């Protein structure tokens, strides 16, 4: 791996085995529901990215610095404190939906949820679908096209 490549890369590890190993039954069920939602939204199968991220689809990016690489179109990770969803375009354009989502926190492209029961699933599905649609011009995996 060159210095300019991401440390986190897609792997051949089993997504099912990863999800089956989640100790908390509620978190495990939430992750399976998010997997189904993201597979439907992207038309792409779940793939492990590094040891703890489940990603869907691929896009190519290039920064002004010249650094470029590939990353998932969307994905999630069952972190210790939150279920983290990766929605690449971020949330600035989605203020109205975010206000209706329910209990959550955000980072630049991360949506942090304690559990799916805390949010409106129809709103979450809309957010994921809009995020995937926004990434369509950059996709290189041809899924969902």
Automatic annotation (TrEMBL):
User: What Gene3D superfamilies does this protein's entry cite?
Assistant: 3.90.1150.200
YdhG-like domain sequence ranges: 27-131
Name this polypeptide is given:
YdhG-like domain-containing protein
Q: Which organism is it from?
A: Arenimonas malthae CC-JY-1
Q: What is the lineage of its organism?
A: Bacteria, Pseudomonadati, Pseudomonadota, Gammaproteobacteria, Lysobacterales
């Amino acid at each position: 791996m060159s210095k300019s490549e991401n440390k986190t890369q897609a792997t051949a590890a089993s997504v099912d085995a990863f999800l089956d190993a989640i100790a908390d039954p509620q978190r495990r069920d939430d992750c399976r529901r998010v997997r189904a939602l993201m597979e439907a939204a992207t038309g792409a199968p779940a793939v492990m990215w590094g040891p703890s991220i489940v990603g869907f689809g691929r896009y190519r990016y290039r920064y002004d610095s010249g650094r470029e690489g590939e990353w998932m179109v969307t994905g999630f990770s069952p972190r210790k404190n939150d279920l983290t969803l990766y929605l690449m375009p971020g949330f600035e354009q989605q203020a109205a939906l975010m206000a209706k989502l329910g209990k959550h926190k955000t980072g630049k492209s991360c949506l942090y949820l304690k559990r799916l029961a805390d949010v409106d699933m129809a709103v979450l599905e809309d957010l994921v679908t809009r995020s995937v649609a926004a990434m369509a011009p950059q996709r290189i995996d041809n899924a969902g096209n």
